[in-house]
Amino acid sequence: MLLVLCVDLDDDLGRKTGVETPVVGRDAVRDSAVALATADPEDSDVNVLFQGIHLAEEITEESVEVAAVTGIDGREVEANRRVGEEVDRVLAELATGEDVRAVVVTDGAQDESVIPVIRSRVQIDSVRRVVVRQSQDLESMYYTIKQVLDDPETRGTLLVPLGILLLIYPLTILANVIGFPGTVFGVVSGMLGLYILARGLGVVEWVDRAVETTRTALFTGRVTLITSLVAAALLVVGGVSGVGTVDSMGRDSLGAIEIVAALIFGSIEWVAAAGVTSSFGRVTDEYLSGEFHWRYLNAPFYVLAIAGVLHGLSAFFLDQGSLEYLAIMLTGGTLLGLASTLSFAVAESRAGDRIDAA
């Protein structure tokens, strides 16, 4: 069976005539088309309905049915979903054992956005676009431009470089006024280069995610935001302290291993403080959100254990600590990590047992 499917994505038929959709059958579709033409003679969906009837009457070598389905005005996602639901109802009403294929009739590019939804339910043999001949190219261009402007990804990719290029003329005038006429093309090419590089490396998406995360943290009162800023400041101080330690020991007299050891030796205390601060902030947020687990408390103890091991190693390589000190740090770090892991595992197990008993 061939199903001629007339698509009205913005529901002009339902809104203007009160006809309930989907409409199935030639007579029912013809009556709906007459009702819509009476309500709004200039509506292009009138042509879609009559074209569907015309196609059904032209085909005589196989059984043909005509149906009209509609969406929702102004909401494309919901409109596509509703069209899919109405197509399912039409297929259920056909009650035929034959394979059903469809010819989709629309009035332009906007309605054709629902084609993938229909194709997921029935095989489509062809798509027939029906618009007033004088406005076909104009309508296609209008909806193409509208689709580009509505899509954030396409809009950013196309319009931003175009906007930068359009700045050449005003930048040239400004450069001539301030006496730097040779800088315009360098500035424009630099802006384009930075934009293309940012798009290629995904910097724009990363910045968007970072801004959204920060906004969420601000409005939900997350402690992580403050502790992360403090941790970042401690890391900067640690880096400066590490570089200062290298300089104080004489950069030229140190080998590659000694330079790395000096950087660690001078900064590890600050880095450990940053790690502990950040981890406690995360634990606090998890507790406040009701998703706390005892094992989360391992993080600050792991940071201290790793910091102790690194401090012992760096001190040993710089002759700032004896072999015994290194052994103490390695043993202490290992024991601290094991003790925290076992302690919080037991605490979490007992807490789980109490919950199960309750």
How is this structure best described in words?
This protein is of the alpha/beta class and 358 residues long. It has helices at 12-17, 26-39, 45-58, 76-94, 115-119, 136-150, 152-166, 168-178, 184-201, 203-220, 223-248, 256-288, 298-317, 323-357, and strands spanning 2-8, 23-24, 64-70, 101-106, 123-129. Strands 2-3-1-4-5 form a five-stranded mixed beta sheet, with helices on both faces. β4 (101-106), α5 and β5 (123-129) form a beta-alpha-beta unit. α7 packs antiparallel against α9, α11 packs antiparallel against α12 and α13 runs antiparallel to α14 (323-357). The protein is elongated and about 100 Å long. The mean pLDDT is 81.
Q: Mean pLDDT score, rounded?
A: 81
Q: Between the first and last Cα atoms, what is the distance in angstroms? A: 62 Å
The shape, in one word, is elongated
- The percent range for helix content is 55-70%
Q: Beta-strand level of the residues, as a percent range?
A: 5-15%
How many helices in DSSP terms? 14
Q: For the report, how would you describe the main beta sheet?
A: 5 strands, mixed
H and E order: EHEHHEHEHEHHHHHHHHH
Q: Tally of extended strands? A: 5
Name the assembly state.
single chain
Sequence of strands across the biggest β-sheet: 2-3-1-4-5
Class inferred from helices and paired strands: alpha/beta
Uncertain ranges: none
**Rounded radius of gyration (Å):** 35 Å
